[in-house]
């Protein structure tokens, strides 16, 4: 097995520091998030910065070959997209490095390292708590943030409740950091349908959609009713497909359980 380590040249670290961290990843017990597919842990670097390490699981047998020879790994895309977002003036946890492990014929695990951002909340908190302080204002500013992404031609395909970190800067000002960056499209321009679809994963609540759509309508100079209808229709379609998929998974688990 070989190990490829790519360090951000503008960051104060070396492969000699990163390699033992990755080699001992399984023994790190300080989790930021623990999932079936991917996990995120945190460590302190020699420069006293707190870094997070996202570990991507070994892909399936087909993708072992695809990622080895034809497609950039999720870790590499996360790293490169983070650098591109920063170059375009958007916030994301500062990229430190990515690491890939592979054999001559197969791709194995990969890791993405970035600085830890101490966020006050994510979009998810507002989905679950209708009484969150200053909730409407945060949603309006989040809509401006998304509009700026769209104007820059950035289609964040995982624009979902947990993937925007929100930092309170002052009483009425918030910063937004994108995370989980490995699925993005970059366009010369984005049409109305693509923009509306990009909101579809965020919330099942029409009240939230109406706040965002009304604000977005002002920004693109369209009637608010038209934008509300378009955004809500995209949201309903996503929710329908999501619940269909969940029902199929539940049915499959039940069938397996009977065997």
From TrEMBL:
Pfam families: Kdo. InterPro entries: Kinase-like_dom_sf. This is Kdo domain containing protein. It comes from Faecalibacter bovis. The lineage of its organism: Bacteria, Pseudomonadati, Bacteroidota, Flavobacteriia, Flavobacteriales.
């Amino acid at each position: 097995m070989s190990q490829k380590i790519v360090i951000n040249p503008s960051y104060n670290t070396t492969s000699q520091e990163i390699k033992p961290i990755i080699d001992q990843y399984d023994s790190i017990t300080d989790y930021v998030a623990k999932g079936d597919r991917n996990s995120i842990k945190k460590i302190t670097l020699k420069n006293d910065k707190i870094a997070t390490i996202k570990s991507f699981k070994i892909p399936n047998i087909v993708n072992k070959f695809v990622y080895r020879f034809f497609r950039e790994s999720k870790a590499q895309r996360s790293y490169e997209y983070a650098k591109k977002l920063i170059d375009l003036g958007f916030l994301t946890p500062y990229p430190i490095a990515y690491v890939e492990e592979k054999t001559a014929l197969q791709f194995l695990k990969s890791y993405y390292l970035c600085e830890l951002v101490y966020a006050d909340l994510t979009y998810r908190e507002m989905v679950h708590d209708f009484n969150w302080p200053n909730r409407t204002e945060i949603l309006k500013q989040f809509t401006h943030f998304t509009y700026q992404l769209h104007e820059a031609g950035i289609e964040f395909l995982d624009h979902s409740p947990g993937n925007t970190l929100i930092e309170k800067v002052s009483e009425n000002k918030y910063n937004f950091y994108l995370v989980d960056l490995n699925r993005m499209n970059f366009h010369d321009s984005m049409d109305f349908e693509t923009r509306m679809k990009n909101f579809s994963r965020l919330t099942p609540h029409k009240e939230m959609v109406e706040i965002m759509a009304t604000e977005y309508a002002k920004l693109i100079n369209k009637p608010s009713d038209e934008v509300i209808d378009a955004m809500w229709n995209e949201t309903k379609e996503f929710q329908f497909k999501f619940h269909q998929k969940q029902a199929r998974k539940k049915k499959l688990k039940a069938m397996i359980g009977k065997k």
